[in-house]
Amino acid sequence: MRVLQASSLFLTIWSASASVIERQSQGGFEDGQPIDGNGKGAPFSGGTNHALDLQNPDNLGRQSTDNGVVPNIKWSFSDSKTRILRGGWVREQVVTDLPTSKQISSAQQHLTKGSIRELHWHRVAEWGYVYAGSIVVSGVNQDGQFEVAKLAEGDIWYFPKGVGHTVQGLEDENEFLLVFDDGDFDAVGTTFNVDDWITHTPKSILAKNFGLPESVFGSVPSPNPYILNSTIDNHNVTGGNGELTGNASFAYYAKDHPLEEVPGGGGTLRIVDSSTFPIATTVAATVVTLKPGALRELHWHPNAEEWLYFHKGQGRATVFLGSAAARTFNFRAGDTGVFPDNSGHYIENTSDTEDLVWIEIYKSDRVEDISLTQWLALTPAGVVAATLKIPLDVAENLQKEKQILIQNR
Fold first, then answer.
1. What is the pLDDT, as a whole number, of residue 16?
2. Of the residues 153, 175, 360, 401, which is catalytic?
3. Within 10 Å of residue 311's Cβ, how many Cβ atoms?
4. pLDDT for residue 26
5. Residue 225, by phi and psi: left (phi above 0), alpha (psi -120 to 50) or beta?
6. Residue partners of 161: CB distance under 8 A and separation at least 6
7. Per residue, what are the HEC states of the chain?
8. Is 214 tagged catalytic?
9. Which of 43, 266, 304, 335 makes the best surface tag, with the fewest CB within 10 Å?
10. Which of the residues in the chain have pLDDT under 50?
11. What distance in Å separates the CA atoms of residue 91 and residue 178, rounded to the nearest whole number?
């Protein structure tokens, strides 16, 4: 009997141990478990979103250099409420979604063929990037000058604050990124739709203002539709004080601005700021393609926080806030992020096969960055060597030119 009891106890202990060993051996960051393989961590036993854990292994404690309290700097458009309408949809990311994004808010918007984002204006500037289909944008400034521009994939528009404008889809399906130079875009008094104003103005005043019968305004929609079905308008606009062209144009055409090759050989970029798009005085941007395994070098921006939209691929970034505070985030297509003003950071493409494509946005008239390597290389080598406790010859031979996008090595 004692032999049987001992055998039974041994089997119970062995079974329990085997279960623990199996759980530990199957665990690890790549399996969505906070286990480093060196004795730290343990598997989740309570509720967790395993799909998100798999997508965000660095949030499980993978990077031993992460430290301190760093607020969340990431938001996915997939977490945003999508507003569906006749003729398209829209989903936003504003400061209530991502509190660290104080200077920039954004939206993805989709229009079907002929559909219109109704006539409106904002108290903030609007910047847009077409990534699917083609659209026509039109706007009128305070001097009665106008522009009607057809934009294709890769093209950009910018409407300064207060400029009345609209957008219409030209292909079967059209989609674009919208950026606004204020994080609190949903605040009352930010967007003004024309039909909303018309329906809240006495008809007698409308008749006097336009010189038309009151009955003309009897069918103006209320509440305003925001996006509405329509057909493509081919009318030519004439008159006023003429068409906006050259440096005053609201439109930026990618075909007129070749991609820039960078010294590090890790990809390409296109800088779109007031030096290449003069009207855009409050929103500067860079469109970046980073090759598999490549690195956007360690750097910071002296003039603004950096807001990002990840369009394709997957990557990771560590943000350094000073005072030993650093945190690593994983990003993939559809994510937005923000690096606080002057914070140090990098971006790495974690795919072996796919390019990482993203758009950087700054509330500024210029894109500015300071490269960590270049800064050290242009500082007296003895000072650098003494500070970092590295060999003098290493400090003497650091790259003096920005590498920007460094190829995998």
1. 38
2. 360
3. 18
4. 52
5. alpha
6. 122, 123, 124, 125, 282
7. CHHHHHHHHHHHHHHHHHHHHHHHHHCCHHHCCCECCCCCECCCCCCCCHHHHHHCHHHHCCCCCCECCCCCCEEEHHHCCEEEECCEEEEEECCCCCCCCCCCEEEEEEEECCCEEEEEEECCCEEEEEEECCEEEEEECCCCCEEEEEECCCCEEEECCCCEEEEEECCCEEEEEEEECCCCCCCCCCEEEHHHHHHCCCHHHHHHHHCCCHHHHCCCCCCCCCEECCCCCCCCCCCCCCECCHHHCCEECHHHCCCEECCCECEEEEEECCCCCCCCCCCEEEEEEECCCCEEEEEECCCCCEEEEEEECEEEEEEEEECCEEEEEEEECCEEEEECCCCEEEEEECCCCCCEEEEEEECCCCCCCEEHHHHHHCCCHHHHHHHHCCCHHHHHCCCCCCCCEECCC
8. no
9. 43
10. 1-25
11. 10
Per the listing, tokens 């855009």 go with: 280
